[in-house]
């Protein structure tokens, strides 16, 4: 009997929690916030009533505290770097550094919906190096790379994305590695392809000239082939006509 009632109790508790959520007794949300290194970021409170007291925390540590009686107090490294809007409850932090990364929470009896802000402080990725080479299969391989020992790469490696931008007349095929792409050697080699490295706030790029991807002898042989091919076709047509006339003469005799 006890074992059979356990699932029922669990469902009942779950239903009670859902009821509270619908009635807005319990409500919270979490969001990822990205701030630029040395820049500023603002945490916006979604809903609030006129405030009587506000506490902003980074993890378990206080960032700023305000109430109607004592006024505003800012703590530790945030002194001279924060602005608290006591009307909206929004908190702005300036002069961002990596040490500012953490979870920020507002605590106030006047906030209906509790909010968690996961702050990541990021810098522009380094300018990439782009290169290309001809493969045995007749394709051009494009490669894009950045300095892996750069501190911005080490700290924000999970946020870095690679992208290739190609002209409308060029078909770029991405490989299994996003930092690589493939182009046919028969494409319009007068065009440039852009290698782009980005994160949620910044993007840098480097161009690749497709004409530089082929060795000089390949280009020379390609032009020679284009010059010879019409001559070969004309020669075959002439030979066909000559043999046809000869066969007609032989049949006539």
What's the topology here?
Layout: H1 2-22, E1 28-36, E2 41-43, E3 53-58, E4 61-67, E5 71-74, E6 82-84, E7 91-93, E8 102-107, E9 114-122, E10 129-134, E11 139-145, H2 151-155, E12 161-165, E13 173-174, E14 180-184, E15 192-198, E16 203-209, H3 216-252
CATH architecture of the largest domain: Sandwich
Helix and strand sequence: HEEEEEEEEEEEHEEEEEH
Structural class given helices, strands, pairing?
Answer: alpha+beta
Radius of gyration: 34 Å
CATH topology of the largest domain: Immunoglobulin-like
% residues in beta strands: 35-45%
Unreliably modeled segments: 1-27, 220-227
Q: What percent of the residues sit in helical stretches (DSSP H or I)?
A: 10-25%
Q: How many strand segments?
A: 16
CATH class of the largest domain: Mainly Beta
What is the overall silhouette?
A: elongated
Kindly report the average pLDDT value.
81
Number of helices: 3
Query: What's the story with the biggest beta sheet?
Result: 6 strands, mixed
End-to-end Cα distance: 114 Å
- Largest sheet, spatial ordering of strands: 1-9-8-3-4-5
CATH level-4 homologous superfamily of the largest domain: Immunoglobulins
Number of domains: 2
């Amino acid at each position: 009997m006890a074992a059979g009632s356990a699932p029922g109790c669990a469902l009942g508790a779950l239903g009670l929690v859902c009821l509270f959520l619908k009635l807005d007794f319990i409500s919270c949300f979490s969001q990822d916030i990205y701030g630029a290194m040395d820049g500023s970021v603002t945490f916006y409170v979604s809903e609030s009533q006129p405030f009587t007291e506000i506490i902003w925390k980074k993890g378990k540590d206080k960032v700023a505290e305000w109430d109607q009686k004592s006024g505003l107090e800012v703590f530790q490294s945030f002194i001279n770097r924060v602005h608290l809007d006591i009307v909206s409850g929004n908190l702005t932090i300036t002069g961002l550094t990596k040490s500012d990364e953490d979870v920020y929470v507002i605590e106030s009896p006047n906030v209906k919906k509790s909010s968690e802000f996961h702050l990541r402080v990021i810098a522009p990725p380094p300018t990439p190096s782009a290169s290309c080479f001809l493969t045995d299969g007749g394709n051009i391989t494009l490669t894009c790379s950045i300095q892996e020992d750069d501190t911005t790469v080490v700290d924000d490696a999970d946020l870095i994305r690679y992208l290739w931008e190609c002209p409308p007349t060029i078909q770029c095929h991405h490989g299994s590695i996003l930092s690589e792409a493939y182009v046919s050697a028969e494409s319009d080699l007068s065009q440039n392809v852009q290698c782009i490295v980005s994160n949620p706030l910044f993007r840098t790029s480097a161009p690749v000239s497709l004409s530089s991807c082929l060795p000089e002898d390949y280009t020379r042989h390609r032009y020679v082939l284009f010059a010879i091919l019409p001559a070969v076709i004309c020669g075959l047509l002439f030979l066909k006509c000559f043999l046809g006339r000869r066969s007609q003469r032989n049949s006539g005799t």
